């Protein structure tokens, strides 16, 4: 029994390894339930290998019958995992067929524990030793088959195959290369191995053949093929997501530069104010210095004004530099009030030139939030510029934008809202506003 034990143990270990990988893929992408189904199939396959070894090691007919009764549990889980995998993976299944299969196999499992010794046989009279891979294993020598039950089980399995073929055919008719590939995977990985296994196990059940009962080649083969396909799709989707993230980063940079173009005249105007003041103060300082007795206190005040205007200009440039440089997301505790005021300051000149009033309603004492200052600023700037454009159709005295920030008392979260007096988003396009480049 050493060779058989080693091989079945290797099969169980392989199944558990694949189950772990599929489980990790599902945890990474919770919406891809096909990976969860493969996790269940892997666990069911490993348990099946353990129970099959128990049957092969059985010394008495009673022990063999007890193992066979419990064998129906991993068989049920494996079949349900494959049914639900097809439902999730192909996405075209007929629900009537699917539920018919689930109910039929549920009936088989329930009847199995209501009769003695198990669903397949009314009695197992004797065992015999038979060779398998150079070892000797236990197999049924004489038994009484429950023929009516057995035909019901066969019908349920053929119904399962019909369900998979129907789902694959529907997927195939979609016509895309990906759809046809998925349809072929379902047929080759499940239907063909299942057909071979059904024929073999039913010949054993009806006493035509005498041999060891095993579904491991079918389960493990199906698991390997389906895990390979879902793993391949997982890698491709991860690569696509990375490329999409890079494109989004580039798009964000382009949007920031475009926003700089829209704000350039307003920012130039805002910068010109401190620079003009600096220039005027320098001229005044030169006039004072030409006097025989310069007024030191007056010169000190002028230099103080120059320093303040310089700080104001540096602050404007620093806000622009932080906003438009290429950078990764940097999460840190930030004050929402500062972010809102800085964004409002950047668009203030543009808003004034278009006769738009911008009001800030900031709740005092808001907690710091964990976020990226630059990306949050860009979102606010985009919303504010959209609002400035949205209110242009309104009379001058009705062009109003309100930026509000407050704490939700129920959740403790900070909410920022931008509201304008424009006409609003038409209902026909409201579902498209979050699409890229719309």
Report on this model:
The radius of gyration is 37 Å and the shape is elongated. The strands form three sheets. Strands 4-6-7 form a three-stranded mixed β-sheet, covered by helices on one side. The protein has helices at residues 2-28, 33-57, 61-90, 95-112, 147-172, 177-205, 216-289, 296-324, 336-353, 373-390, and strands at 121-132, 135-145, 332-334, 357-362, 369-371, 400-407, 414-420. Helix 7 packs antiparallel against helix 8. The two termini are 67 Å apart. The mean pLDDT is 86. It is mainly alpha-helical and 438 residues long.
Keywords summarizing the entry:
438 residues, mainly alpha, three-stranded mixed sheet, two-stranded antiparallel sheet, 10 helices, 67% helix, 11% strand, elongated
How many strands, what sense, and barrel or not for the largest sheet?
Answer: 3 strands, mixed
Shape: elongated
Order of strands, main sheet, comes to 4-6-7
Q: What are the segments in which pLDDT stays under 50 over at least 5 consecutive residues?
A: none
Structural class: mainly alpha
The helix/strand series, from N terminus to C terminus, equals HHHHEEHHHHEHEEHEE
- What proportion strand? 5-15%
* Mean pLDDT across all amino acids: 86
Number of helices: 10
Query: Could you estimate the helical fraction of the residues in percent?
Result: 55-70%
């Amino acid at each position: 029994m050493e060779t058989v034990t080693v091989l079945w143990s290797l099969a169980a270990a392989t199944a558990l390894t694949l189950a772990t990988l599929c489980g990790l893929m599902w945890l990474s992408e919770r919406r891809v339930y096909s990976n969860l189904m493969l996790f269940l199939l892997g666990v069911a396959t490993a348990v099946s290998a353990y129970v099959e070894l128990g049957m092969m090691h059985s010394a008495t007919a009673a022990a063999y019958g007890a193992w066979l009764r419990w064998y129906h549990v991993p068989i049920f889980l494996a079949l349900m995992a494959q049914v639900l995998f097809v439902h999730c993976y192909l996405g075209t299944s007929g629900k009537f067929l699917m539920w018919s299969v689930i109910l039929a196999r549920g009936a088989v499992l329930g009847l199995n524990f209501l009769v003695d010794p198990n669903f397949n046989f009314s009695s197992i009279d004797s065992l015999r030793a038979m060779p398998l891979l150079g070892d000797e294993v236990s197999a049924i020598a004489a038994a009484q088959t429950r023929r009516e039950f057995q035909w019901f089980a066969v019908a349920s399995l053929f119904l399962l195959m019909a369900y998979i073929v129907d789902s694959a055919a529907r997927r195939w008719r979609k016509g895309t290369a990906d759809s046809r590939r998925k349809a072929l995977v379902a047929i080759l990985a499940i239907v063909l191995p299942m057909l071979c296994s059904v024929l073999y196990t039913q010949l054993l059940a009806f006493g035509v053949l005498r041999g060891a009962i095993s579904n491991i080649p079918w389960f493990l083969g199906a698991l390997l093929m389906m895990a390979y396909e879902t793993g391949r799709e997982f890698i491709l989707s991860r690569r696509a997501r990375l490329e999409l993230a890079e494109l989004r980063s580039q798009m964000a940079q382009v949007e920031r530069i475009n926003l700089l173009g829209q704000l350039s005249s307003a920012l130039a105007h805002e910068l010109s104010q401190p620079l003009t003041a600096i220039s005027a103060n320098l001229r005044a300082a030169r006039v004072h210095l030409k006097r025989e007795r310069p007024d030191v206190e007056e010169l000190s005040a002028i230099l103080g004004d120059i320093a303040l205007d310089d700080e104001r200009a540096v602050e404007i440039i620093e806000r622009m530099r932080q906003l438009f440089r290429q950078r990764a997301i940097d999460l840190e505790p930030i004050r929402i009030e500062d972010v809102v005021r800085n964004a409002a300051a950047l668009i203030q000149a543009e808003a004034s030139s278009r006769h738009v009033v911008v009001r800030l309603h900031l709740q005092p004492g808001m907690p710091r939030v964990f976020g990226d200052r630059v990306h949050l600023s860009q979102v606010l700037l985009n919303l504010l510029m959209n609002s400035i454009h949205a209110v242009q159709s309104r009379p001058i005295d009705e062009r109003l934008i309100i930026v509000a920030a407050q704490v939700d008392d129920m959740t403790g979260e900070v909410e920022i809202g931008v509201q304008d007096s424009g006409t609003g988003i038409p209902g026909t396009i409201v579902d498209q506003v979050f699409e890229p480049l719309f």
